[in-house]
Design a protein that fits this description.
The complex is a heterodimer of chains A (309) and B (423).
Chain A (H helix, E strand, L loop, with lengths): L15 H19 L12 E6 L5 H12 L3 E6 L4 H4 L3 H9 L5 E6 L4 H5 L6 E7 L5 H15 L6 E5 L6 H12 L3 E5 L15 E2 L3 H5 L4 E4 L5 H4 L6 H8 L3 H4 L7 E3 L12 H4 L6 H23 L3
Parallel strand pairs in A: 1-2, 1-3, 3-4, 5-6, 5-8, 6-7, 8-9
Chain B lengths: L1 E5 L2 E3 L6 E2 L3 E4 L2 E2 L9 E4 L4 E4 L1 E6 L12 H10 L2 E6 L10 H14 L3 E6 L13 H7 L3 E3 L8 H13 L4 E3 L4 H4 L4 E2 L2 H6 L3 E2 L1 H18 L3 E3 L5 H12 L4 E5 L1 H5 L21 H13 L4 E2 L25 H13 L6 H6 L3 H6 L15 E5 L4 E2 L18 E2 L2 E7 L2 E5 L3
Parallel strand pairs in B: 1-6, 2-7, 8-9, 9-10, 10-11, 11-12, 12-15, 13-14, 15-16, 16-17
Antiparallel strand pairs in B: 1-4, 2-3, 4-5, 7-18, 18-21, 19-20, 21-22
The chains are: A alpha/beta (309), B alpha/beta (423).
Amino acid sequence: MQLQHKDLLGIQMLSAEEITLILDTAATMKLVLKANSKKTAHLQGKSVINLFYENSTRTRLSFEMAAKYMGAASANVSASGSSVNKGESLIDTARTVDQMATDVLIIRHPQSGAPHLIAPYVRCSVINAGDGMNEHPTQALLDLFTMREKKGRLKGLKVAIIGDILHSRVARSNLWALQKLGADVRLAGPETLMPHGELTDGIHRCRDLREAVDQADVVMGLRLQLERMRHGLIPSVSEYARFFAVDQTLLDLASPEALIMHPGPCNHGVEMPSVIYDSPRSVIQEQVTNGIAVRMAIMYLLISRRNPI
Amino acid sequence: MRLSIVNGLVCDPVSGRQSTEPLLIEDGQFVSRLSGPAETVIDAAGRDIWPGLTDAHCHLREPGQEYKEDIASGTRSAARGGFTTVACMPNTQPVCDNASIVRSILERAASAGSARVLPIGAVSRGQQGQELAEIGLMAEAGIVAVSDDGHPVEQADMMRKAMIYAHQFGLPVISHCEDMSLASGGQMNDGVISARLGLPGIPDVAEAHMVARECLLAEYLKIPVHLAHISCRASITLIRQAQERGVRVTAETCPHYFTLTEEACLGYNTMAKMNPPLRTADDLAAVIDALADGTIGIIATDHAPHHMDEKQLEFALASNGIGGFETALPLGYTTLVRSGRMDLVSWLRTMTIAPARLFNRPFRGFEPGSPADLILVDTKTPWTFRADSMASKARNTPYDGWQLYGQVMLTMLEGRIVYENIQ
């Protein structure tokens, strides 16, 4: 079993079997992270380039450390603004990076579909580290990894995703992935931040947060971008916190063993109070560690598919 | 120059009759009898002969954006697609909002054009929607309509003034219906596919909202209005209701709205990016019904050529539109006529009599004294459309590789062959 495509552009292109393969491989990689010497030779002699057109701390560092723990050479490129403003098209930039004997190109970009645009033009594997409001596949995979590790299963798991669903690539990737693996996904948040119409069959859109978290096994908060308020989609942060925060009253409706998750960075007191963020049921810190294991697994699988190591 | 075209099947959208009588042409006009023996005889056996088509809506990009298209290449593309008359929108650089630009377009067309060019002037100065352009002076210079196409006239009061003022000069106002606040940065139709692609959506109500406004203004002012590139059922319902009340509202659609849906955008296919966006299968069905029952009377191309570099981009940054001259006829013939959704004559009228009537221009088909504008079409042999065969400078088309019926074999403008398919 190996991955079917050269690139990891989104969860939508993965089968349930491929997702499971990535999660299983990540479990092995996590052992490396827990070992005394955090070093493997999986990517010895390979090169990984991070091309980030948007700010990022954890995702970029996570990819960089994942590459380094496996012995790859890695470099970061921070680009600002759109390709048009830069005077070079995205395709040209990607080709240039590709020509430096690059094996894996990791891209984050403010426009949906940017990784899909460059993938056919480069020989290296492209990994989507977040494109516009489309997908953030490695985040969803680390979330699933965390859920599976804690709950032992994904099938039938009740997962409530709360917040700005409309603009969230994390929510999108999660719901595609969870749906493929048979979880029961419920979405809730301010109606102005919910997608218009049905995203897909079998996803429960709830008008009431309480309905979404009822007996939930996992409650996931999403980051609220403060610019949503400027655009008039919510009246104020305090009103959001009053009606849409993941707080104790809401969590009382969930399963007593429900996991609390958040992709970070979190606006404390807005998406959830600090006591919830730091509560024993919160796995938010472990999500970060698992992120490295999942990214190690993905890079390893993509490279071994190209030229068996 | 005396010319005779024999053995073709002539279809005249004016009379609705078909015949195999020879067509006689002298000095660029149809005649009932030649003054002497024909100097040239064209054998049109196996071909359909139709009048040269009129496009009510295109972009020729000159002046200012000649890297995309110019009047010479644009009209060559038109001729190849069977159009002998094209009305070009004013969103050039600078904007066609004054008589001198109108004259320069007409002069370029006269010297370099393979088709007759009818300029459309801007409604407002610089298409900014603030003050009226010099509509009267442009009318004198030869415009056939006014439009701020590409930019909706946002203020209802501005639209009211434009309709009243243009009407005095006998010009129709063509409205690009889009409520910008509802469209708010959208990149494709708002729906399941935009959600799947993570692209912001443009809801159909963004178009229909302004359609409603224009219908109400036309009703209140008792002045006609023409609605450009109608794409969705919501708009069509409003137009039909207004027409039933006797409001003088006419509408056009484009071949892409009856041949493609939003699904063409999957894979971030920028060739399918346009404004208004491709809609749903239900909207497509409504567009075909509206053409069949006459609610929408005109098929226009909205020929919108762009350089490849403007399409090979992130979806949100790519330009809107497709090059439409060379596919409009075969798409209409294949999808509407051959499928039996429209009869040949009614369909031909959407690209001949109807646009001529919109622009208050005479159209008498093959009648003696009319300009000898005609096309010879092979309707029987399927052929594969190739983007790299386009006469346009542009290659932005979602139809590359489509198998179609209705290939233009020859185009004649005032008795002169402006395009011939030499196989």
